[in-house]
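Kindly inspect the following:
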Amino acid sequence: MVQTNEWKRCNGCKRLIPYSATHYVCSVSTCTRKRTGFVFCSVECWETHVPMMRHREAWAVEETAPSEEEWARILAGDAEPAASVERATSDKGASDRPAASRRRVVTTKAEEVPPGAPEDVLVIASRLKHYIRTVHGLSTSDAVLDLLSGHLRRLCNRAAEQAKQAERKTVLDRDFDFLR
């Protein structure tokens, strides 16, 4: 077995999450079960997970990964995972707050829908449905269009914020680099 500084991989972008590093988990209980165990390297990666899982109300919870020794004990069955995460937070000094407290991460400015923003569907229904039927042989619910439109609005808001920070008046393809 090759030894690395890798604890797990981000479920969003597949980047490595090292031991004792800060990461995010979903507040929804079905996402934190032992079988699923979703972990994300950033709030942005967690945000890509929310529409896919159809969460109605969720937030990202900041946690600290266990150390390599604690992870080995967890895998051996000697320790409880939740306790090891709390110990890692307090033992490693990664955070000055008590181990039992958690931080709720709220939406960013780019995710807020400006007042008076159009709520139109941004996806061409016939093309999306044709693509899914042709490639996968499945039908597509009309509810998917609203969900995808909302997701596109959030992506566009983030890209527009990046263009504004770069003092440009044009949104460019590189403003969507966070998708890569």
